[in-house]
């Protein structure tokens, strides 16, 4: 095709998005040849994704990685994704320390770029990065993602201070951080945190609109969230007090979307006259929930028990309503009547899915005792008996 078409040759040899996986010495030779051509011809690079694999196992490649990153930065890269070699089980860390040392990522050289908009680091080590040469300020970076990146509170503080215009931040399982303290982030709009065990998290960001928090079920987990302009909030696997959630919802006057997954020991809560809430998703959260949201348009409930939801009249005109129940215990007429009564409280349901693992014989006369309950209106009914 390259011989037949100059257009094709020009197109494939000047691709702006590059993805390289360096596992063997032969890989480094191919990558080096390609990037030298990009450097010599000053071919623009929009997205540069590089993965440094375990099999390479040598410090000799480090100067080449320095060179490749430098070429990408000089050629105007906007999106830089780097994955190192730290995604290994602790049992084999000691065995590979001498064979496969962590690459000393030149983080502040990268941040000094005037074109970089997004930086994604995975399986990297920033604990040994020296701050003696000063910290470069990045006025172009808008999104920063750190997944399984080793760093301490001081390094995180310096990173955030050097990126004053960040609008998106992801922190996922970062060893070395005993506490995540995010204060006075003036431009931040989106935040995603996957916390470790016993890791304290404090978030105070007046501009934050979208937050996702995934924690471990730990007694000592301490979460403080003060964000008045939240539009969406996802909380998963978090030990919180019963008063935490209602207080957070009441302070967030613009909250439109709320997702709650596996919040143990939460006895339920009351959404009090939330005029902004439109979408509510509840999964594996027991307790009595009272929903008073007149503008609610979507409700998803997923659990192993019939929901104990008290929905105000104003919130019953739902455009989308979905109930999924995974029932592992033995069922009887009382259970079905309870479910029927709940479903009858709303005008109609878009979808109801019931997955049964065991069910007792149902006496029709027992069901008829509750004949006064209105017949639920369900658009789609899925029943799966295992």
From TrEMBL:
Record domain F-box/LRR-repeat protein 15/At3g58940/PEG3-like LRR: where: 100-215
Gene3D superfamilies: Ribonuclease Inhibitor
InterPro entries, alphabetized: At1g61320/At1g61330-like, LRR_At1g61320_AtMIF1, LRR_dom_sf, LRR_FXL15/At3g58940/PEG3-like
Domain At1g61320/AtMIF1 LRR: 227-329
Alphabetized Pfam families for the sequence: LRR_At1g61320_AtMIF1 (PF23622), LRR_At5g56370 (PF24758)
PANTHER family attached to this UniProt entry: F-BOX DOMAIN-CONTAINING PROTEIN, OS02G0105600 PROTEIN
Descriptive protein name: F-boxlrr-repeat protein
């Amino acid at each position: 095709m390259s011989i037949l078409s100059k257009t094709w040759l020009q197109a494939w040899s000047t691709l702006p998005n590059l993805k390289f996986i360096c596992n063997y010495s032969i890989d480094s030779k191919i990558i080096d040849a390609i990037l030298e051509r990009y450097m010599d011809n000053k071919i623009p690079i929009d997205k540069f994704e590089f993965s440094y694999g375990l099999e390479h196992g040598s410090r000799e490649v480090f100067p080449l990685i320095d060179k490749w990153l430098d070429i990408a930065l000089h050629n105007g890269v906007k999106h830089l994704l780097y994955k190192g070699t730290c995604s290994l089980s602790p049992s084999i860390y000691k065995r590979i320390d001498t064979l496969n040392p962590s690459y000393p990522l030149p983080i502040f050289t990268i941040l000094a770029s005037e074109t970089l908009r997004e930086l994604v680091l995975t399986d990297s080590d920033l604990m040994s990065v020296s701050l003696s040469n000063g910290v470069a300020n990045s006025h172009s970076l808008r999104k920063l993602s750190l997944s399984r990146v080793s760093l301490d509170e001081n390094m995180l503080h310096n990173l955030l201070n050097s990126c004053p215009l960040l609008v998106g931040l992801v922190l996922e399982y970062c060893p070395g951080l005993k506490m995540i303290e995010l204060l006075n982030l003036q431009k931040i709009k989106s935040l995603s945190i996957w916390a470790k065990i016993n890791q304290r998290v404090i978030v105070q960001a007046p501009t934050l609109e979208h937050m996702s928090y995934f924690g471990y079920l730990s007694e000592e987990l301490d979460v403080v969230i003060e964000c008045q302009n939240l539009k969406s909030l996802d909380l998963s696997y978090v030990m919180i007090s019963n008063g935490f959630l209602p207080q957070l919802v009441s302070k967030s006057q613009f909250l439109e979307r709320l997702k709650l997954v596996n919040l143990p020991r939460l006895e339920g809560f009351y959404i009090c006259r939330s005029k902004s809430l439109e979408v509510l998703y509840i999964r594996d959260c027991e307790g009595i929930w009272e929903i008073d949201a007149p503008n609610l348009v979507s409700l998803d409930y997923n659990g192993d028990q019939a929901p104990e939801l008290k929905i105000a009249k104003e919130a019953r005109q739902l455009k989308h309503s979905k109930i999924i129940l995974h029932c592992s215990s033995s069922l009887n007429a009382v259970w079905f009547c309870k479910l029927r009564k709940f479903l009858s409280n709303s005008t109609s349901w878009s979808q109801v899915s019931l997955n049964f693992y065991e069910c007792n014989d149902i006496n029709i006369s027992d069901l008829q005792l509750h004949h006064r309950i209105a017949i639920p209106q369900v658009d789609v009914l899925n029943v799966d008996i295992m």
